[in-house]
Design brief:
428 residues; alpha/beta; nine-stranded mixed β-sheet; 11 strands
Length: 428
Amino acid sequence: MNRNHAAAMFIGVLVCIPLLALYHFGFFKGTADWFATLFARGFVLPPGGLKQLVWLQYGYYTLMAFTSAWVCIEMLSQWRRLAFLLGGTFLTVTFSCVMAMSGILFEPVSGSLALWFAGIAGIAIGGTVDGYRRHVMREYFVGRLSARLFEELADQNHPAKMTERREITVLTCRLLNHAELSTGIEAPQFEELATHFQRSVTEFLIARGAYLDDCDARQVRVFFGFPLTDEHHALHAVQVAAVLRTQLAVVMREIEQRFGKKAQIGVAFSTGPAVCGLFGVSHFESFSAIGDVIDFSAQLCGLNAEYGSKVLISARTFALVKDNAEVRPMEMVCAPGSSQMSEVYELLAEKGTLHEQEARARDAFWQGVVQYRKGDLKQALESFKNATIEGRDDAPLKYFTDRVEAALKEKTVPEKETPKHSRKLAAT
């Protein structure tokens, strides 16, 4: 239960207890008799007159008290709060008249008092500096953060600066064949397919502590380590990715069953410094980040389509999680605007979770990549054969095996750090 809900519950109880006491001491008896006389003059009542249901009175003013407190705390506009209170009062009086025509005496005063007292208390709490700040933060973060993390962010007495340069981990999840998926299918169907992908991935990631930065028909991008500071952001991202692989397999199976299309989904992580802050204009403002780490994550994600891999991580991410993750190397890449080559790794699983056969295959694959870069093509091919697990498709293994076999056929030995085993990523 968050702070606003707790405050609404507290106000509701404080309002209901005095009203219950007033009913017990007969304070509303005269009011009920006056309305009974008024209804007898103004309506044609059923034979037998009006009967009062005390439980209905108790239930109604209790409902009004809790609802009014909650709405007036959550609602930011004073005019809307006033409109709600006036509308609630009109509803209460109308309900009283309808009950009278049904033979039930329902006095509207207690319900109206509960509505206004709880509403005024809710406005007082919602109008505090803390209440106003929570309202403003809700516009920016609800739907992008889990409820738990939003409450943690909102409850900080001195919230961490969100406009600063900090290191974050960026996760990009993309429909690699989105162009293919959009052809041969009606627009409403593709819209439903993309929405299913977006909802499945975003709900999964947000529930596990990610901040949703961007979401469109092609990809979902989230941050770890923002807006709340998290010194273990890379580790948390990789832990989420290990479970995300299973979730994506379910999503791809559902897409194939519902739409008859085979979706290819890739994931990539990149860790690095970024300028975080509030960007945009008017209703298009949002807290986001700017930096090469954002573009690098997107570009690495696209490489999944070439390697056939599922999850790729940058060298910086691997350096932070190497004691907690099982990986194997892919290629050396050069990010836009940089002349320095860095390794790209495929994330396989969390540390220590590979079976013995899988661990041997990983080691053989790693050895094969190293031998290929040194130009030992025959040894590399032998290592890649040893990395094969019978009955399991391994697209990255096939990718490197094909390259080695092609090099052998050409009878050319790639020089160290040539484009045959390294690449320069294009700027987005």
